[in-house]
Amino acid sequence: MPDPAYGPHEGLVAPARPTKAIWRLLVGLTIVAIVVLGLNWLLYSTIRQLAPDYWRDGLVFATAQGDAPLSLLILLGSFGFPIVGVAVAVRMMQNRAPLAVVGPLPLAVRQFWRVMRILLVLGVVILVLPPWDMGDPLVANLGFSRWLVLLPLSLTAVLIQTGAEEYLFRGYVQQSLAARFSSPLVWMVLPSALFALGHYLPQEAGENAGLIALWAFVFGCLAADLTARAGTLGPAIALHMFNNITALLVVAMPGALSGLALFLVPFDLSETDPVRAWLAVDFAMMLVTWLAARLAIRR
Questions:
Q1: Strand boundaries in the chain, DSSP class E
Q2: Residue 41 and residue 52: Cα distance in Å, rounded?
Q3: Rounded to an integer, what distance in angstroms lies between the CA atom of residue 265 and that of residue 268?
Q4: Roughly how many angstroms between the first and final C-alpha of the chain, as a whole number?
């Protein structure tokens, strides 16, 4: 029996039902991949032509790592390419308007701000309460004035990145599967498993790779739950953006994806004990923010 709390999800799923064949989703994902690869090639070809010295100085490696402000801005901004890819796939394979994947736009925006406001208040409360670190002092990264000047660009880049991932996983893939299969064990679990696979990084995380992927899987399920309850992607985007603001712009791991952070933790992703202690806190924080988001959309 369908969960009545997930009734709003039907508004997202019903328009995809006439084109619910799984082959359409697979072809659509292939279209997304082709668009992303093509636009990335165009981006880097353009940079290579316009700024050959910058290219020779290691732009590609730096952008892959995201360990400097410009490289991370480019990396996060390039997540706009999956948005374009999904929009093309939705139009070609489902004959739907690309914005239909988001849900009713005015409602999505209202829900986004409801969730974001309550999460920002929660974040400030947690920030001012002890403890203020994980046993060792945080390491300064960007100077505060530079961080503040970059903040509008940083927030825009994070919104693009998180919006793209939600548009793909909790939008296109989740809705396409829900149009074919009624069970949340399919439309909630499978996109979350794909999302987790993208966060499985054994070379960077070593023995922590499995736990980090598990974190991403649980996050995906919670974001799917919010989307089904809300009937739009607004709350899931807000939850994801708040998490990534914290992890990319406030306190980041050193090395990859650290280029826009104000502070760094005093250990890297492959260190077992401190990372697992940090992940335990992160799991708890994820559950608290999910519950807060659920309260926000019930108002």
A1: 139-140, 251-252, 263-264
A2: 15
A3: 8
A4: 26
* Helices 234-244, 209-230: crossing angle, 10 deg rounding: 150
Task: Reduce the DSSP state of residue 204 to 3 states and report it.
Answer: helix
Number of neighbours of residue 132 by Cβ within 10 angstroms: 9
**Phi (first) and psi of residue 264, to 5 degrees:** -120, 150
The dihedrals phi and psi of 188, each to the nearest 5 degrees, come to -95, -40
DSSP state letters, 237-286 = HHHHHHHHIIIIIIEE-SSTT-TT-SEE-SS-TT-HHHHHHHHHHHHHHH
Give residue-wise pLDDT tens across range 3-14.
788 999 999 999
DSSP at 1: -
**Residue 162 CB coordination number (10 Å):** 24
Measured CA to CA, the distance from residue 151 to residue 147 in angstroms comes to 6
pTM of full prediction above 0.90: yes
10 Å CB burial of residue 103 (0-12, 13-18, 19+) is buried
Q: Which two tokens stand for residue 255?
A: 């090395």
Q: What is the pLDDT of residues 22-45, one digit of tens each?
A: 999 999 999 999 999 999 999 888
